[in-house]
Specification:
The protein is mainly alpha-helical. 73% of the residues lie in helices and 0% in strands. Helix 8 packs antiparallel against helix 9. The longest helix has 20 residues.
């Protein structure tokens, strides 16, 4: 192939016919343009790659005329070969004028042609072959070899990067380094950015190291592209080391660089690391921007540091940094998560008063907050406002509303909303089905809950741990332990791991039926799996032992709870007081009652009835 391609730039004379055809074509296109060749079929019938090459190499033709001819041939007759592309690019390079606009237009044309060379598989050859052809074009046109080769390969490097042809781009880069051609930092930045967007962080790091080894000048922008990738992968230590090395070379981190570290440390839940970066920014005199504050508010909110998020928001306002919709959405979401819905609504009003337009995420955060607070009327008002502004409901907001209605006991409204959602062409996911099934169970509509979960599977929605747990709980409450255990086995076979709630459903079921052997066996099993029994686990077991008349065992379990860091609740106390009362241990029952009140737990009417009953039993 190399021999064939080189022939066009060799000194071997073309045939007299080819030279004559080329001469006539050149004259025609100089006077009348390439389209006029359409009227000369006899001339075009003699057209071949050598003729095309002779026309493009004609020094009397302008670059514009040659380009017109090049595209005419490409469109109507034959695909130009690699030699023709390189000759055309060389001609455009030599014809550039001092005028900036014209220079830019020529550069764009050169880039378009290089792009064609890069993406056309038929023109794919090793870099060494391309280099040989480029040298031939330089010799033919007598242009500055180093300048043209540097420009050509720089464009080729960028084009390969833009087309995600990373191996080919690296080959060009190494060829340029070997030949001592100028390596442009901006082109290297484009390659780094392409690698980063392609998720190739390791390749990004290797290339940056190679840049440093070759003494290629780099800026904070190239550095930050790499550091952002490392931080998003949680490799903040590697990033910090690179930042220090860059600082030693005089390249200082900017606010975008520091923001990448803040995001990285929050991703690792490392608040100490966040604090270090903020101190470093202060030391280096780098001021926080709106993105910094957004990251801090969002990050502190996610780890439950609501007051810290609020402090950051207040600091931002003190510094007169204008909060955008993203900042407001983050702080609104933060307040909603912590149950401060009134504060969130006030912030929403403040935001709209400033002329900022809420987006779907802003409304979503507020709707989530009011739904969790059981304020479904407010949720519907927000939905109406949102839709009036042209923002349609998405599956996430539908799920929030469905869950909110179910938690408020308005399951039929949730079912209506699911119907509306599906009419809009949105599929119900496992979260929606689980919410409705759970809501039906709370209203003792267990058969409907089972039917819904079976329909979910028939529709191709895979059940998750919560789906299986809901079914297990239903079967346990029905006393159908054979089916409960079958579902439990199926759950594990399908790769869904039982959690503490799953085990609690089984333990509660067996305990209520007096099968304490199986209940304790399940407690041991969950502990062997690394799960930790909670208050609900112990309360179920205490209740079961009391039903079985084994009050001493119940007391032992009760006394074990503080050692596990568990605080008994009103249900735990009620179960044990009930057990003690039934066996006539009124003294112990009243002692527990006093302890209950000392712990700040308010007894209900059931406890009073049990205590009165225990006195009656004791007198008898």
């Amino acid at each position: 192939m190399l021999t064939t391609l080189r022939r066009a730039f060799s000194s071997n004379p073309s045939s007299k016919l080819e030279q004559e055809v080329a001469r006539k074509i050149s004259k025609t296109i100089r006077n009348s343009g390439a389209e006029s060749l359409q009227t000369m079929p006899s001339l075009l019938s003699s057209l071949n790659s050598q003729t095309v090459q002779l026309v493009l190499s004609n020094h009397t033709l302008t670059a514009e005329t040659c380009l017109d001819f090049f595209y005419f041939v490409k469109k109507n007759y034959q695909k130009p070969d690699l030699t023709a592309y390189i000759t055309m690019i060389s001609k455009l390079y030599r014809s550039r004028k001092p005028d900036k606009l014209q220079k830019s237009q020529k550069f764009d044309e050169m880039r378009n042609l290089v792009d064609c060379v890069a993406v056309d598989g038929d023109l794919s050859v090793p870099v060494t072959v391309i280099a040989s052809l480029v040298e031939g074009a330089c010799n033919e046109s007598k242009c500055n070899r180093d300048k043209f080769m540097g420009k050509f390969f720089d464009i080729l490097f960028r084009v390969y990067a833009d087309n995600k042809m990373f191996g080919e781009a690296l080959e060009v880069f190494e060829h340029m380094a070997k030949k001592g051609l100028h390596l442009d930092e901006r082109s290297c930045l484009i390659y780094l950015l392409a690698l980063r967007r392609g998720g190739q962080v390791d390749s990004c790091l290797r290339f940056f190291r190679r840049m440093v080894d070759l003494n290629v000048e780099f800026t904070v922008y190239s550095l930050t592209i790499l550091l952002d990738g490392l931080c998003k992968r949680g490799e903040v230590e590697v990033g910090r080391k690179l930042m220090e090395e860059a600082a030693a070379k005089g390249v200082k981190a900017n606010v975008v660089t520091y923001n990448a570290f803040i995001e990285g440390y929050f991703k690792r839940l490392d608040l100490g690391g966040v604090k270090e970066i903020l101190k470093l920014m202060e030391k280096e005199g780098v001021a926080s921007n709106v993105v910094t504050y957004t990251l801090l508010i969002h990050g502190f909110s996610n780890v439950g540091k609501v007051e810290e998020a609020q402090r950051v928001f207040d600091e931002m306002r003190e510094k007169r940094i204008e909060a955008d919709v993203y900042v407001y959405t983050s702080i609104i979401s933060c307040n909603c998560r912590s149950g401060k819905v009134k504060r969130a609504l006030a912030l929403f009003d403040e935001m709209t008063d400033k002329g900022l337009i809420p987006n779907a995420h802003t409304y979503g955060a507020l709707i989530h907050g009011v739904c969790k607070a059981g304020q479904m009327e407010a949720a519907q008002m927000l939905v109406n406002e949102m839709q009036s502004k042209g923002i349609d409901l998405n599956p996430v907001i539908f799920n929030m509303l469905i869950d909110g209605y179910c938690e408020s006991g308005m399951v039929d409204e949730a079912l209506r909303l699911q119907f509306v959602m599906e009419k809009k062409g949105l599929e119900s996911d496992v979260f929606a089905y689980n919410s409705i099934a759970s809501g039906l169970c709370k209203l003792n509509r267990k058969d409907e809950a089972k039917g819904l979960l079976f329909a979910m599977v028939e529709r191709g929605v895979s059940p998750n741990t919560m789906s299986y747990t809901t079914l297990i709980d239903i079967y346990c409450k029905e006393g159908n332990f054979v089916e409960a255990k079958r579902v439990f086995r199926e759950m594990e076979e399908k790769g869904n791991v039982p959690n503490i709630i799953t085990y609690n459903a089984l333990i509660h079921g067996y305990s209520k039926r007096g099968n304490m052997k199986e209940a304790h066996k399940l407690k041991n099993e969950l502990e062997n799996r690394g799960l930790i029994p909670d208050v609900y686990t112990y309360t179920s077991l205490i209740h079961g032992e009391c039903i079985d008349g084994k009050v001493d065992r119940a007391l032992k379990l009760f006394n074990e709870m503080p050692h596990r860091g568990l605080v008994p609740n009103v249900v735990t106390y009620t179960a044990l007081i009930s057990g003690l009362s039934k066996v006539g241990k009124s003294l112990e029952a009243f002692k527990l009652y006093d302890e209950m009140k000392e712990e700040g737990i308010t007894p209900d009417d059931t406890v009073y009835s049990l205590l009165v009953g225990s006195l009656h039993s004791a007198n008898v």
